């Protein structure tokens, strides 16, 4: 907290800024990420540097992407003051820029863009350790049939093997958020589930999980806006699927992949 005051850092609500102030939690992140002196580490949202400069002590290099110009200036000031040689600050939106090559990602990410960050990291396929809203973290690791099982569960588990590490209390941040957080490890999958078209697969998953408590065919019939197809046609095709009468919320990735491939196969034949 004193460091935040020293640098006159003021959290910006619209950017979802809640700064981690608990050094013990920072130590947990460093330990659990198992960073070596050969690793280039990506940090999304450097804040005032609580994690950044601890990462720099053990990593070969730290690339910290910070969207807030004022905070980026604070980080640059700290680099100059302490003569830190292995930290690069990029002022920009991590979701919109091409980040430099990295080996691992260790970040305390803004809650409101957690889904987009997980999706982005999935494209890079690198080990990641993230602090995020606890409820969101529980969705990442949820299994079929669990109440937290959702579209984001499929997205994360398609690219990674997610592991929940521990809860992080809200008092570990300034200002304190209204919810607790959690630390999650994302291990890249060596072998992903095969789908004919990854983009179409996620479009299918997004559509049916809006109605996840319904049977698959029924969920599809209610997805005319997402699938841009007539409800009757969706219903007819949906009934042909192998798992047509199975509720969406109990379908694992393999069965969803098969359903998506079957669905688009039938759509192609009907055209």
Your description of this structure?
This protein is of the alpha/beta class. The chain contains twelve helices and nine strands. It has two domains: 2-188, Vaccinia Virus protein VP39 (Rossmann fold); 198-270, Orthogonal Bundle (Helicase, Ruva Protein, domain 3). It has helices spanning 2-6, 23-33, 52-56, 69-82, 114-124, 134-141, 151-159, 198-209, 216-221, 224-227, 231-238, 253-270; strands at 19-20, 40-44, 61-66, 87-91, 104-108, 127-133, 160-168, 173-174, 181-188. α5 (114-124) packs parallel to α7 and α8 (198-209) crosses α12. The longest helix has 18 residues, at 253-270. The mean pLDDT is 94.
Summarize the structure.
With 271 residues, this protein is α/β, with parallel strands linked by helices. It is built from twelve helices and nine strands. The protein has two domains: 2-188, Rossmann fold (3-Layer(aba) Sandwich); 198-270, rRNA adenine dimethylase, C-terminal domain (Helicase, Ruva Protein, domain 3, Orthogonal Bundle).
